[in-house]
Amino acid sequence: MKNKMKISVSNTLKGLCLVLLTAGIMASCSSDNSPADNPTPVEKNITYGLATVSGAWPNTTTYLQGFENLDFTTVGNDKAKELTGTASVVSEGKYLYAKPFGAPANLVKYKFDENGLAQEDNKIVVPGANVFSSIHFKSETVAYATVAGGISKLIVFDPTTMRIEDEISLKDITDKFPEATRTYYQDMVERDNKLFMSVYYENNFIPVNDYAYVAIIDLATNKVEKVIEDQRTGMLFGGPTSNAGMIKTTNGDIYIQAKGTSDNGGNAPSGILRIKNGTTEFDADYFFDLNTATGNICYGIYQVNGKTFTTKVEDETDFWEYKTGNPQFKYFEINLESKTSSGAVPGLPTTYGTRNMSITPLNDSEIAMTIATNDENVLYKLNTDSNNLDKVFTSTGGYISGFKNLK
Hints:
Helix content: under 10%
Protein name: DUF4374 domain-containing protein
Organism: Flagellimonas pacifica
Shape: globular
Keywords: Signal
Largest sheet: 6 strands, antiparallel
């Protein structure tokens, strides 16, 4: 009996010693841990959004991805979000909004995780339309968007919830030309609580006339105030890139670029009109004839870092780039005050307009310009102080349908 008690006490003491030893080791290990052993994860700040398109129409795929910086020379699609079909993008703050082509019209809001992976946040669907055309963000909770293809309309939505809050009647615009089979709204600029929106009337794929039209909408009442016209140029549409036809300068003047109608059987030259700050009419004393300044029809107007650009068409008979199978658009620098052009941006290849064109500020002295050729798809960087041009990266996963600086 005594032996059994000794064995029991001995085992108990051994067990207690083992527990205390283990606890001591664990406490020692815990006390040895330092912040250096368990560093706090560094959050990545995704500052750039990229959309690329791969494949041949109609079997195309769009890829979305985000980047913290541009410290790379090539980029593929292996880490990108895949979308069916062709989509262009716009951005507001840290969000990228995709506009896929195809009924019903979708506007899909994406945010990026710390690894640059696009995560769908929410979306808006408009049955009866094919695509979202132009989008204007008024505030964090109010935005305006036009849809086209099938029905055309102007909606008011909340970007935070992606809910349609209202629809602005465009009957006063469409009633101006009842014979028009389609009416398009490609660009929007806001000033003085009014929305200036480009309008293009078409009758069976032909412009109804040689004129340019802009609708003015009172945002206090969400009603069309009037439609103004100018006979010096026409066709505020006709190109492959939406949201590229109107700008507002720092002094509040609005400039509107029109392709003209000469390649559509009309007589209107390609040109730029102006609506001066504080007015709601075209400036009768201002017209910039782009045909004369550049030598051919032009499409688009971009103003970044104090410089203004358009794109000149090399062969206007192949505006849609089907006939020759070659790119036709050349970035040209222009001066809105002197109404002159300093010519093509040196070193930039001729690009496909049908594969989207964009100019995006990188910082106060550098801008990014997309290029798509038969050989490569490249983002170039132009120093606006020195005019030095460098390649930023080459896309191996298709042409660049959108590059955005996420604020």
